Amino acid sequence: MARVGVLALQGAFERHSEVVKELGHEPVLVNSAHPLATLDGLILPGGESTVQLMLIERLGLEDSLRAFVASGKPVLATCAGVILSARSVSNPEQRSFGFIDLSVVRNAYGRQLDSFEAESDAEPKLPLVFIRAPRITAHGPGVEVLARHRSEPVLVRERNLTCATFHPELSGDTRVHALVFGSANGGEN
C-alpha cells in the first residue's frame, strides 16, 4: 500500500482520493509542505490553475513540490495540474513550474458549458472527461504520448510525471491512476 498525496488546495481533489482508495492505497490530502516528504506518490488535480498558483505561493509549497517531482516518485497531473506542470502556458500566458516539456493552451476545448465526454483514439479505449481542458500544442522529444483524442495527445509521460488533460477521476475507470501508482488490491477497471 502506497501513501499517495492529493494536492488539496482547490479543485477536484476529493474524487482523486476516492480512486486512490479504490486501488488499495492510502490517500493523504496535502495543503502544507509537511506531509510531502512522507509520500510515495502525488496528484496535482484539476481546478483553477491561477487560484492554485496563488495558494501554492501563499502557503510556500513550490519548493516542496519541485523537490517531490525531482525525487523521481510518481506524479499524476490532471487538467489544471497539467497547466501548472507545463514548460509554457498560453491563453492567457501564465507562470508554470516547467516540470514537463509541454506547451499547453488553457481552456482550449471551450468554456464550462462546452464540457464533453469522449474516448481515446486507440484500443484499449479510455473514457475521457473534458472540463475547460487544456490542449497540448507541443511536446519535447522526451515526452511519451500514451493516449490521443482526435490525433491530439491527451495523456503523456516524461520520467516520473504523467499528465492527463482530461479528468480520469470522473470517468469511473481507474486505469490512469493504476498506470501511475499501481494497484495494491488488483482492483483495476
Overall strand count: 12
Report the structural category: alpha/beta
Fourth CATH level, the homologous superfamily: Class I glutamine amidotransferase (GATase) domain
- Give the SSE order as H and E letters: EHEEHHEHEEEEEEEEH
Tell me about this structure.
It is a single chain. Helices cover about 20% and strands about 30% of the residues. The protein is built from five helices and twelve strands. It has helices at about 15-20, 50-60, 60-70, 80-85, 175-180, and strands at about 5, 25-30, 40-45, 75-80, 85-90, 100-105, 115-120, 125-130, 135-140, 145-150, 150-160, 160-165. The model has no long low-confidence stretch (mean pLDDT about 95). With about 190 residues, the protein is α/β, with parallel strands linked by helices. A hairpin with a 7-residue loop joins β7 and β8 (about 125-130). The strands form three sheets. A seven-stranded mixed beta sheet has the order 2-1-3-4-12-11-10. A three-stranded mixed beta sheet has the order 5-6-9. It has one domain (about 5-180): Rossmann fold (3-Layer(aba) Sandwich), CATH 3.40.50. The protein starts with a strand and ends in an 8-residue tail after the last helix.
Q: How would the blueprint of this fold be written?
A:
Layout: E1 3-7, H1 13-22, E2 26-30, E3 41-44, H2 49-58, H3 62-70, E4 75-78, H4 80-85, E5 86-90, E6 100-105, E7 116-119, E8 127-130, E9 135-139, E10 144-149, E11 152-158, E12 161-164, H5 175-181
Parallel strand pairs: 1-2, 1-3, 3-4, 4-12, 5-6
Antiparallel strand pairs: 6-9, 7-8, 10-11, 11-12
